[in-house]
């Protein structure tokens, strides 16, 4: 009888395997930048998740920064890549390259910081900055800039800051933080792009006063005691979208099963990363290798294991949501998240024509494809691809504003500080649509890592 049951079980396994379509292409190259949020890609490789789905993946560290990543995805040298959430949108709009790229999943929430050097921090403290305040506003920087304008007059020299790419979350977060206190970024400062690993050396050399970057390049400066992180992007916008997995739309069309296999492998890695803090510590050791992030384990653990050290010479502070990979639907590519980046491209003058923002984001972000994959591996889905931000406890903006995709055009012009090249009237003419938004509950289905409080773990 037992032998018969075993034969039946084996038969069912064979049938199940035969029903799973084989990947059209198995040898793949995936590019990444040396940042801790490349972890889902690296863990998918190191923990055998790619192998599990019949893939032979070459994971490559890109030395040419985000422009190098984008060029190689467009050319086909990389089949997939670690990408800034705004990059596939920009390429599809013809801003950053010219190709229909798509974001098939979100790699993480949060993960960035705004770090300033010791010199400018001393100047800001003279204007009332309390660097232990959370979240820390840019009011003292505004006062310092106003005093600098008054002292220098027509010879005013703008302060220089760094970010990683013109369509990066970092560029928009730095500008958002500054503008929230009345700073006009393109008048009062100069904001330049640098590859993430070069940020610390540029600050130490005096080329910039500070920067916005992902980890571990904030903690590197803090531990060297050359500066402090004043604010994280979680402080600016709780559980904000950060990186995505991108590929070309024509690759997906030609290789749908390969695309799904890659997504499954990386999604399983994201779940593994949020299952326990022990897994995060193991991930830090893996990421420290020379062919990955190439940073000390002690530096990587500062942000990966539920803490973050903001200030030089002081202890780390509890920050369990600094990196979120799977919990709270962090892997889900929300249309509303993608559209927020389009509003910032308009706000800061990067788009010079009126486009239907809903049509654009629905051609770039793929929650439909994600839903297919998620159901196959048991990843829970939010109630809708459209939601508001700034209305729930764990997705607030530091300035209290609300992001509602149904008011996207109004949102662009709501602050009084923008550099838009397209008028509100022009945008309203081509954005007459409406969407139904639904708010997801805050849940942590996969484990305590990346979770606000263990009480939300529902495993």
Automatic annotation (TrEMBL):
Its main location: membrane. It is found in: Endomembrane system. InterPro entries: NrtA/CpmA_ABC-bd_dom. Pfam families: NMT1_2. Keywords: Cell inner membrane, Cell membrane, Membrane, Signal, Transport. GO terms for cellular component: endomembrane system. Residues 1-21 form the signal peptide. It comes from the Bacteria. PANTHER family: ALIPHATIC SULFONATES-BINDING PROTEIN-RELATED, BLL4572 PROTEIN. This is ABC transporter substrate-binding protein. It comes from Candidatus Sulfurimonas marisnigri.
